[in-house]
């Protein structure tokens, strides 16, 4: 995984989502994880550019619009707006939102395809073979056979197609792709996906259609052959480049990471790098390097079953809103981050597990811990942070625990393992609880001879709380900012691409200033009683 480099901006992308439907938990998940990673970078003082958006030229958009008596663009406008506003509402701070129907994108795609045509890596031919209409995907014969001529995604029969097309010479890039994988072991993660992909490339690559006919004008025309439309996947993949292919933004390329799920692995990890390899051989495009890495997560399932239209069990926007209302947005973000399918297995979005995690980790651990510390300072120190007798060494154990957790958190975040980052942060809170139990400040408070000891213990607790809240900020920004407010800390991490955070400095033990007023407030996460519903 590419390491953050403060010398240049960090560029992270999500898939651009189809606008034939409204956003659901899967789209929200990928974009939220990307947001957490970008926030983490900014908190560490780096610039981070998060790109998300919508993929609009699919044939199914035309069908969905027609069913509603709308023009494709009207339908796309409505749904793109829904994606954009949903992401904003869910606390996602993206620096741009690309729609493939925007002229800035279309102009660039025509330009790239023209360059490929001129170079000869795109040529005219006839496609005869299988097509997965739901996925808008051409399926090689061996795969079609292996899948028994059914879409592995929606189970619908593959369609036989014969049409004049423009082809991309994918087969010419097999060796170069394999060499790239060999040279860059972290290019695609997790490792099991990488092995799967390399295996598939080694089976042999066929040239792929990169245009289609009969789109009724919905899509980007092939330069010089306007009867043909650029195949929606080629159009879509180029978004990562087209959005930053301007004078001001070109230095963002190559992307540090394309965050995607396993369903679209082939396009991102085989076709896209090959397209870029072809493009960078075209005059004037030598700067078009390959993305630094691709991270493919797995899927959320819902209450133990695959989410599907027929089961009607999607975690829809309505359900997402309901969770936010009952538990708060930050609790939803925490569940997504800590229990999500970042690795190779799918994960269950289950209300029972959600409540369990919420009560155990947020209400009883993070929230209760913040409460205990601030209440004791209120009670025993007149609401002011006491001066520790020896702020550096008085409480070595807790300090070391915090520093270790911070180290693990940094590593996890650099590797996009937000679940591990949550676990590292949580150790701080369980550490504070154990420390309070062991040092028993409520007993110390009764003994006037032990005032210094009490002050040291409470100062340490507040320091550890500060550490924990900083580590959890990218995951739960709103609630953690509330902790900062209560602790009288003036942290203000920038939300835009410019990183102004100083996490390294802030994560120094002993930074808190004695005498700072400490506020106790309502519970950060009120315990949820499932029976009270
Ligand atoms: N438009 C293409 C992507 C083009 S990118 C150049 C597409 N769109 S999609 O709307 O179907 O979104 C697919 C992506 O949504 C997945 O790769 C993943 O990021 C997210 N998810 C969709 N369903 C999901 C789950 N059930 N679980 C987790 N994420 C999933 O494919």
| Share in β-strands | 5-15%
What is the residue-mean pLDDT, rounded to a whole number? 94
Number of helical segments?
A: 19
Net shape = elongated
Specify the helix fraction band: 40-55%
Number of strands: 15
Poorly predicted ranges: none
Largest sheet, described in full? 6 strands, parallel
Head-to-tail CA distance between termini? 42 Å
Taking all Cα atoms into account, the compactness measure Rg is 26 Å
Q: Helix- and strand-based class?
A: alpha/beta
Biggest sheet strand order reads 3-2-1-12-13-7
Layout of strands and helices, then pairs:
Blueprint: E1 10-18, H1 25-43, E2 48-55, H2 59-67, H3 72-89, E3 96-99, H4 103-119, E4 122-132, E5 137-139, H5 141-146, E6 159-168, H6 174-183, E7 188-189, H7 191-202, E8 208-209, E9 211-212, E10 221-222, E11 225-230, H8 232-237, H9 239-242, E12 257-261, H10 265-279, E13 294-297, E14 300-302, H11 317-327, H12 329-339, E15 347-349, H13 351-380, H14 396-414, H15 418-439, H16 441-444, H17 451-472, H18 477-486, H19 503-506
Parallel strand pairs: 1-2, 1-12, 2-3, 7-13, 12-13, 14-15
Antiparallel strand pairs: 4-5, 4-6, 6-8, 9-11, 10-11
Helix pairs in contact: 2-3, 6-7, 11-12, 12-15, 13-15, 13-17, 14-15, 14-17, 15-17, 17-18
The structure holds 5'-O-[(L-methionyl)-sulphamoyl]adenosine (MSP).
